[in-house]
User: Fold these one by one.
Assistant:
Number 1:
Amino acid sequence: MTYTITNWDRATFKRCRRAWDFGSRARGNYEPITPPRAFDLEEALRYALTVYYFPAMWDWSRGIVRPIALEGFGKSMRTQRERYEAHRPFSPAEERDWAEALEHGDALLRGYFRWAQSVDHFETLHVEMDVDVNIPDPVIRGVGLVTPDGDTMYYRDRLELLVVDDADQFWVVTHRLAEGGWAHLDQLVLDEEALAQCWACEEFYSKVTVAGTIHNELRIDVDPPPPPAVPDPAEAYAWPQRHTRRYDEFGPPPPPRPATEVVDQQTTEHFRRTRIARSRAEVEGFGKQLAALAQDITDPMLRVYPTPSWAHCGRCPYRSPCIAMNEGADWPGVLAASYRDRGPERIERGRIGGSTGTWFVR
Ligand code: SF4
């Protein structure tokens, strides 16, 4: 038997054990029947970027890929709307917000694609790829961690975007929306989601050493970039031809870094890209921290308690049963009325990026 801890389990358990207890597949496995929000602009923008950076299309002219990615954005917005309206019709305010977000997101992406073409000096290898890796025992080298019942423990993460740059260095790229200004640099350095992907990638591809993380930010709190005064000429879509390479055709791994540090940053009014080289100690230390967390999660004596915080309770999907529990009210009744068992994990057929272990190098 196996026990799988997902990136959601890892992040949510650290943030609030009660929220994790409600939602984890190994625990309550509850999900709200009605989507908590009418739509999520970030989800749609991420989907468009996944299409844009899809490795199988990376050597296609950007003039062909840009409209496909924009269509992906619109499709995601429409799908989210349909999902929500299956339970509740849009209010006039939601209708207006959705239309504004559709227009804003489309203009933002058009501006991003123009900018990205001048700064994307890499090849894409994977997008949205699920990786399952053994969690190493923190004490006994070369042995995988097991639960108290003897089940092998796995960690599952999703590589948002893995690229290789002109110097044959591998980087994990993450996209984030910026609101109210750019993220503080410390916030990016401390980004554990990105670090977890570095570690999981190296565990999955034992020959790969990840140089670090690239944080790609898009600002949504300012007017989107205006369209160019004259349409882009054909040369604006020029794109170098690329050839498939095997792993052993790449150069040597980067020399070990003694410290994590920002090595490059490019900023415009709407977009910012920050490259952070990660130290060996930081990437390898993540595995030990994950093992400790896995042992806590599967501890038969685990204590579950809430961790209320202004930073995360506002967006928590389990807020109503949590409040009912705090007030000694009928929280099982709240769960029964508004939540459902999400059932076993389903394979998302046709998901772009897909779940695959194939080494896809151009
Ligand atoms: S509302 Fe806050 S305290 Fe309650 S479960 Fe959610 S995150 Fe935890």
Note: DSSP finds eleven helices and nine strands in the chain.
Number 2:
Amino acid sequence: MKLERMQLLLMSILCILAFSSLWAKYIDNHTHIACFGYKSDCYVSKTMKDSFKFYGYQYIFGLSEKKAQTYGDQILFKILDEQIQDSKWVDQAVLLAMDQVYSEQGKVLKDKTVFYIPNDYISENIKKYNTFLFGASVHPYRKDALKELEKVKANGAVLVKLLPAIQKFDIKNPLTIEYFKKLKKLNLPLLIHVDDESAFSKSHKESTFPYDLEIPLKLGVTVICAHAASAGQTKGKDNFEIFIEFAKKYPNLYADISGLVIKKTRFGHLERVLKHKEIYGQLIYGSDFPLSSQVMSSPFYYRARLGFFNSIGMSFTTNTWDRDVELKKALGVPESIFENSRRLLLQNQKANL
Ligand SMILES: [Zn+2]
């Protein structure tokens, strides 16, 4: 009898061990980083520095300009690494670079660049951490764009991020064709914003129509629509509705659920996205850190849906990534969507080996 109990206990321990090794944590495909140009080649425009948002961002990033001046911009990698190591749910985050603005002639337009986070800055600094993945940014009008895409791929990029409204380019410009073909060849997914962008001091609406996504989609590029096209309209139709039509037509179109709990700009959008069960396989997890902060995305804003005490309890979760995951789970995001970012990013990595 004693032996049977021992065997049972041993079996239970083995089951727990096997289960915990299977429980992989999530990858956040959409994490921003701040840098000012202290001991780095980063750049922040005067317009951005004069904007009130600049001070708000320093607060939610947990990095003041003064601190960066003292320790160098790189201190933020250490701060974020500690938070991700601490997270119960997330073990890796894709840190996003941000390329400068270029003219069609391939000239850097410094005066039009809101901020600049060089690819080398991210790829070099993340080397000593296991918690980060490299999200590159290469402006399609660069004369060396194709070479730079090869370089970022060689340096471990898992995706390329573009923000047409801020980087001021037109997807329809013929210069993008070879660029998209290169992305396809390198198996690099394109993370792109198609709606207007309000997170910066100024944006440029004209060149961000979701219909234009058919160009990279038809060329076979894996396209990830940031924030599930949750803001704005095109020709009287919600960008989100256009996204849904395209997602049904193109299996290579994905969307991330980053930033969908931000109260001010995207309140209620997560529920709207989750109604479309047919596209769950094309949705991936992202946080949009630091906009996942308590100020912008507190669970308390969802008290009507979650209940007063539940939302308060969740607001006490201090780890930003855990709070974001727990809030999204409570709002109905299924496990599969959290797991999809690892599947998508690793599948694209493997495809190139
Ligand atoms: Zn973002």
Note: The pocket of zinc ion is lined by residues 30, 32, 288 (CB under 6 Å).
